[in-house]
Amino acid sequence: MPSLTIIITNVPDVPVMPSIYLASNINQWKSNDEDFQFQKEIESGYYILKLTNVLDEIAFKFTRGSWQTEETDINNKVLANREWNKASEQAVYIATIHNWKDVPALVSKPVIPKATLWLKDFYMPQLERTRNVWLYLPPNYHENCSFPVIYMHDAQNVFDGIPSPYGKWEVPEALNNIYEKTGWSCIIIAVEHGNEFRHAEYSPWPHKTRGGGEGKKYIDFIVNTLKPMVDQQFKTLADAQNTCIMGSSMGGLISMYAALQYGEVFGKVGVFSPAFWWCEEIYEFAANQPFNYIQKLVLLAGGQENETIIPDTLAMYNTLIDNNYFEDKINLDFFEWGQHSESFWALEFDKAVRFLFEEQMDLPVVKAEQCVIYNSEKAELSITIDYEKFELLNAYGKIILHKEASICNIIALQPHWKGSFIYKCYLKSGKIITKNIHLR
């Protein structure tokens, strides 16, 4: 007979939270059966119940000890029975409780899913060491559908509940906001960094003096060990167009490498403040890589990080374009005020996810070439779409031109503006179009 683990990731707050029970066809629908009482995990706050030798098909509900305190839906209506069957091949059932029958005032209070420690001291055969892996499941995971997956590094800085001195990306809050506005949601798998092994594991080639170079093995671990396990145990969309890898700093470097090495696996890539300075081989690797797969890529850097990060990021962009990468699939973004910090990356995470998955969210896709036209003979830019404001940035992320929407959509360029620049066109729909442009 099969086994099943039920995990309740989110419950509404009540003044005193008593125990949560499973009432089902396997215990004669008892509402307060102590043998089917959930245990609260202190670290994550999740309620967990492990069942062995269950029936091939079960129906169930959650209660706080009586049918007067059973769970209800987001509108405080009584739910139909939850169901699970052996044929689903899912050994873990993830649930969110929106409301309780006896507490109708909770209807308007949103529930933000949290992350949980999924794999503790998980063995990485490629590196012969262990690592903790964290999991975020969306609020609608219980629905009959499958979900995209974003793989992230530095889990200590991604989720609350893990000690970190550097702040957080606030990923659950951002994804909850996206879900409420678009109905799109995803799974997050975040691997903790290995402290003294971090630089080694996040660098595909060794630094001239600081060593490293275990990044190839680390990405092989994600692709060949971790991802197959995720796709087996959870309801995932396993194809490349629904699989993303994302990271910052050294995590941005290794994410860029993963995109180049495994284009057939990662169709979406987020590269924030990348440490390309660690190994210049990344540029040659990008220049010689055949792009046989269509990928979407976010390249992000800030002007307050260091003197080289924006030129380094721009150099990668130009390397990709020179190698016939899909220009309209890259979102290149510089911010003069951007610092090398989790607070910066947290602000941009929402926009990055929206760009990478805009097709899946059914958002209107606007190509950069449909937005702004450069006329080199007249030294002017023509904005061909409704917009709220327009900015032109130099190669160091400094805004050199700012224009609010007006009747005239022709922008005259200064004669001394030569070389690589970036424009940002803020559309009235809320979308931001960014593109590198070479003025001559």
Jot down its keywords.
four-stranded mixed beta sheet; Rossmann fold; eight-stranded mixed beta sheet; globular; 30% strand; 440 residues; single chain; alpha/beta; Immunoglobulin-like; 19% helix; 3 domains
Give the beta-strand count.
24
Q: Give the uncertain stretches in residue-range form.
A: none
Beta-strand level of the residues, as a percent range? Answer: 25-35%
The N- and C-terminal alpha carbons lie at a distance of 72 Å
Question: Could you name the CATH topology of the largest domain?
Answer: Rossmann fold
Largest sheet: 8 strands, mixed
CATH architecture of the largest domain: 3-Layer(aba) Sandwich
| Sequence of strands across the biggest β-sheet | 10-11-13-12-14-15-16-17
Number of separate helices:
7
Radius of gyration: 24 Å
Integer tally of domains:
3
Mean pLDDT over the full residue set = 85
Overall body shape: globular
Q: Structural class per helix/strand content? A: alpha/beta
Q: What is the CATH homology-level superfamily of the largest domain?
A: Alpha/Beta hydrolase fold, catalytic domain
What is the C-level CATH assignment of the largest domain?
A: Alpha Beta
